[in-house]
Amino acid sequence: MSRSINIVYFSWVRERLGVDEEQFVLGDEVRTIADILNLLADRGAAHADILSDVSKLRFALDQDYGTPASVIGSAKELAIFPPVTGG
Fold first, then answer.
1. What is the pTM of this model?
2. Other Cβ atoms within 10 Å of 52 Cβ, number
3. How does strand 58-61 pair with strand 64-66?
4. Using CA atoms, how far apart are residues 10 and 20, in angstroms rounded to an integer?
5. Is the pLDDT of residue 17 over 80?
6. Whether pLDDT at 22 is above 70
7. How far is Cα 21 from Cα 31, in angstroms, rounded to an integer?
8. Do residues 78 and 61 lie in contact, with contact meaning Cβ atoms separated by under 8 Å?
9. Distances in Å between the alpha carbon of 52 and those of 2, 18, 45, 56, 74?
10. Nearest to 77 by CA among 39, 21, 35, 2
11. What is the average pLDDT score of the chain?
12. CA atoms 49, 14, 63, 87: torsion sign
């Protein structure tokens, strides 16, 4: 059974991709954030470049922080963004 997820990009990730968000239909084999990242990296050079070092990125599933190992479950949204710096 397939399901869909909305992927939202913030800050320089959004700027480099040139899109705010993308909708994906996920197959049953896609279980973790890392699985989605692998699919995204296959979309083209810009995606692959941005995702080449995930230590420079942060993730949230339905607004709860996650890691590449986090299970997607029934999440409807994945946000991808750089670490937030304060001041």
1. 0.92
2. 9
3. antiparallel
4. 7
5. yes
6. yes
7. 20
8. yes
9. 27, 18, 10, 9, 26
10. 21
11. 93
12. positive
> What domains can be seen in the chain, in order of their start residue?
3-81 (3.10.20.30)
- On whether the CB atoms of residues 21 and 8 are closer than 8 A, the answer is yes
* Alpha-carbon distances, residue 6 vs 38, 67, 79 (angstroms): 16, 17, 8
Q: How far apart are CA 18 and CA 4, in angstroms?
A: 21
Output the DSSP codes for the chain. --EEEEEEE-HHHHHHHT-SEEEEEE-TT--BHHHHHHHHHTT-HHHHHHTT-GGG-EEEETTEEE-TT-B-TT--EEEEEPPP---
